[in-house]
Design goal:
The protein is 11% helix and 24% strand. It has 87 residues and is α+β, with helices and mostly antiparallel strands. The strands form 2 sheets. It has a 3-stranded antiparallel beta sheet, with no helix packed on it. It is globular.
């Protein structure tokens, strides 16, 4: 965990897979404290998968909302989806 006058962040790493997740919280006085809206505040969470088009199709079939960033717009290597709350 790291803390400074701007906020707090915790880097997490899975010992078996080496996957990483960083959790962030920003103090009200921080230049990074923004309202939670698309591309601000809660920015994104990313996962590396073996087959991005397949993972995208599966997430959409489970209720995720596709965005303009799809396998078709990124030569198949990247896709973004929104959860049911619009994040």
């Amino acid at each position: 965990m790291t803390k400074d006058g701007r906020g707090l962040w915790v880097p997490l790493r899975d010992r078996e897979t080496n996957q990483r997740l960083e959790l962030n919280w920003y103090a009200k006085a921080s230049e990074f404290d923004l309202p939670c809206s698309a591309a601000e505040g809660l920015d994104h969470i990313g996962f590396e998968v073996l087959d991005a088009p397949d993972a995208h199709r599966r997430l959409v079939s489970l209720g995720a909302k596709p965005t303009v960033v799809t396998p078709e717009t990124t030569d198949g290597w990247q896709a973004h989806v929104e959860d049911p709350d619009g994040n």
